[in-house]
Amino acid sequence: MKRIITTQDAPAPIGPYNQATLVNNILYTSGQIAINPKNGELITEDIEAETHQVMQNLKAVLAAADMTFEDVFKATIFVSDMHNFSKINAVYGRYFNESTAPARETVEVANLPKFVNVEISVMATKG
């Protein structure tokens, strides 16, 4: 059975999708960008702050499903410029224990929603 996961602590969807769905104890999050959920503003002053906001948004969605970054088993990172990878990776890495970090791919794309620099989605499960 599919359960829709929503929280006011992460940005509302900007299209016909939900923040996450829980199916058979697996959480699939939609890609998060650096929208501050409190005021709707984009955080793009630097790539580190932008990535941090993305991770905070993911943290809120995970929490709404009673999960944490420790429950994440797969992550996908989309970047508009691979030259930002090391800075994105440094911020991303602060949210995971290196020995239990999830599988991941990072893909450079031509554009992202609202022309942001980074978008991240994750899959997670309890137990």
UniProtKB/TrEMBL annotation:
GO cellular component: cytosol
Superkingdom, natural source: Bacteria
InterPro entries assigned to the protein according to its UniProt record, in alphabetical order: RidA (IPR006056), RutC-like_sf (IPR035959), YjgF/YER057c/UK114 (IPR006175)
GO molecular function term, any single one: deaminase activity
CDD domains: YjgF_YER057c_UK114_family
Homology family: Belongs to the RutC family.
Name of the protein described by the UniProt record: RidA family protein
